[in-house]
Amino acid sequence: MLRKRIENLSLTCFTLVAGLIWIFPLYWALVTSLRSENRVVSDGAGFWPDEFNLSSYADALFNTSLMDWYINSIGTSLIITAVVLVTGMMCAYALSQMQFPGRRLLYGIVLASFMVPAQALVVPQFILMNELDLINRWGGIILPQLVVPVVIIVYKQFFDAVPKEMKEAVVLDGGGDYTLLFKVFLPLNWGITTALGIITFIMSWNAFLWPFLVITSEDMMTIPVGITQVNDAFGVAYARIMSVALLAAAPVVIAYLIFQKRVTEAVMISSGVKG
Amino acid sequence: MAMIRNKPRHRLIAFTLIIPFVAIFALVFAYPVIEVVRMSFTDAPLIGGGNWVGLDNYKRLFSDNLFYTSMKNNGYFVLLTVLPTTIIALVISLAVNRLSGRMQALALVMFFTPYVLPVSVVTQIWAWMLDFQFGILQPVIEAVTGKPVPVFKNPYWVMPSVAVVTIWWTNGFNVLLFIAGLRNIPEDLYEAARLDGATRRQLFFKVTWPLLWPVTALVLTLQLILQLKIFDQIYLLSDGGPFNSSYVLLLMVYREAFQLNHGGYAAAISLVLFLLIVVISVLQFQLLRMGGRDK
Question: At a CB cut-off of 8 Å and minimum separation 6, what does B279 contact?
């Protein structure tokens, strides 16, 4: 028994130490961001936090367009998440519960589009956004990110599992399909809606390639694209670069820490490992 | 039956439900798919018309040295990331899965957090850690090679370094998939095996591994597709250099379309990348399924 305990304890320690090593880059970014630029590149600077200097954070907040980028990222990510969820659940409901010509074809297309790498479409998408006059606008960032087939696939899977009896009761009371969707199917699946919402939000917040292509003016950039500009502006100034990087990462990291369980669940469900 | 339906009305409602998605899909997905194919047969610049040139873009592509360099680098990057990340994630998930309650949650946070970071945050942190002069990892490199190495400016180090950064960033996702897979294995299978006197080794190879195989196959497939599409980290860390030693297909698409104004040619490269991903992922999925059946 004792041997087993020691074994378990040492395994726990080993795993946690491995975890600490894994997370070390973030720790190091934090330590660096709290030092002065001189201290960062001085020889004696060790592993441990030894300064609490917020000047590079102040610099990041007031001398860059970080605030604009926050607003652009929050705005576009929220809109993308809302539209993806609403259009996805509506389409999934129709696919799951209704009969109409082309139903199987539509579902086939949704499944197939899963395989198409969005990155292969950037050239025609850019041309399209240009024709719609959406370059350097929120609309241009948002539109191509609105197609997330996996949301439909997951919703359909969950709607399929809703028992028939729940539906019949509402239908007998004279309720139509919109009532069913918003009063029965949606409330039954709030869990999956939050999970899909959080993961869609994180994905759009982190999107790089597309916003990078469609935005060229600095005040319209999103966070992940904008912070690469800071490099060029500051030259080598690692305390400031790390402050900007951590400020950029903060919203998603905090969201993840608050909704850990949901994020975990969302990742598992959307890749079909857990239903 | 109480559900006597008005058929045209039922259909109308169904269409109003699918129309928002279908309209967006048609505009920003289906139309671009058709366009990328059409454009690949023209000499169109990024903005503006262009003439039909038949297979010229493809002829040019298959005699373009940079295309072969890119293909080779894409393949090299896949080798450097797909199998290593799968093995690392499997080991981590086995370790994390043995922890309980709070400890497990804590360990999971440590391994998963990098995955939620924006790519540019990841590359900036690693660029700092690997900085030639002041990087905290340079002493480690020095201990191995005898001198510091500017990793993203060295043709031999650049791809492995980008691979390390990528694995650090995306590994948490795979860990989660493996943990979900491990949780799906019923506990009584282990108990039955233990009653039969199975050793820990046997438990892993006779119970865990075969039952986890579908998840392993999924992780391998998803990773292969993901890593073939490498662009962000390369663009941000080495921009294809030095001497094109980290040039990849998507970077080629970007350069041709957005810097050299060769829309048609970039469309042809996109299409080749697209077909490559579809063919490889279908093939790999079939192979892995067969591999699973033999067990």
Answer: none
Question: Chain A partners of B253 at a C-beta cutoff of 8 Å?
Answer: 119-120, 122-123
Domain assignment present for B210: yes
The CATH number that applies at residue B199 is 1.10.3720.10
pTM for this entry: 0.90
Asked if B79 is an interface residue toward chain A (Cβ–Cβ < 8 A), one would say no
Q: What's the CA gap between B105 and B103, in Å, rounded? A: 5
Kindly report, residue by residue over B91-101, the tens digit of the pLDDT: 999 999 988 88
- Residue B295 pLDDT exceeds 50: no
- Chain B residue numbers with beta carbons less than 8 Å from the beta carbon of A231 are 124
Tell me, rounded to whole angstroms, the distance of Cα B237 from its chain centroid: 17
CA distances from A268 to A196, B172, B251 (A): 11, 12, 31
Q: Do B20 and A87 touch (CB under 8 A)?
A: yes
DSSP string, chain A: -HHHHHHHHHHHHHHHHHHHHHHHHHHHHHHHHTS-HHHHTSTT--SS------HHHHHHHHHSSHHHHHHHHHHHHHHHHHHHHHHHHHHHHHHHH---TTHHHHHHHHHHHTTS-GGGGHHHHHHHHHHTT-TTSHHHHHGGGG--HHHHHHHHHHHHTS-HHHHHHHHHTT--HHHIIIIIIHHHTHHHHHHHHHHHHHHHHH--HHHHHH--SGGG--HHHHHHHHHHHHSS-HHHHHHHHHHHHHHHHHHHHHTHHHHHHHHHHHTTS--
Name the burial class of residue A263, with classes exposed (0-12), middle (13-18) and buried (19+) by CB atoms within 10 angstroms of its CB. Answer: buried
B52 pairs with which residues across the strands?
Answer: B42
The reply to whether B199 falls in a domain is yes
Cβ neighbours of A176 in B, within 8 Å = 13
Q: Three-class SS of residue B209?
A: helix
List chain A residues with CB under 8 Å of B13.
Answer: 98, 176-178
* Structural domain total, chain B: 1
CB pairs under 8 A between A and B: 265
Q: Do B11 and A268 touch (CB under 8 A)?
A: no
**Domain limits at B148?**
79-246
Of B32, B136, B253, the CB nearest to A125: B32
pLDDT one-digit tens code per residue, B101-134: 888 999 999 999 999 999 999 999 999 999 888 8
Task: Classify residue B175: in a domain, yes or no.
Answer: yes
Residues B28, A88: C-beta atoms closer than 8 Å: no
The answer, for A272 touching chain B at a CB cutoff of 8 Å, is yes
Beta bridge partners of B42: B52
Query: How much is the ipTM here?
Result: 0.90
CB of B103 less than 8 A from some CB of A: yes
Q: Is the peptide bond before B242 cis (omega within 30 degrees of 0)?
A: yes
- Domains, chain A: 63-270 (1.10.3720.10)
Question: Sign of torsion, CA A91 A96 A100 A106?
Answer: positive
> Who among B111, B136, B270 is closest to A19 (CB)?
B111
Residue B183 lies inside a defined structural domain of this protein: yes
Please report residues of B whose CB lies closer than 8 A to that of A260. 105, 108-109
Rounded Cα distance between A243 and A130, Å, is 35
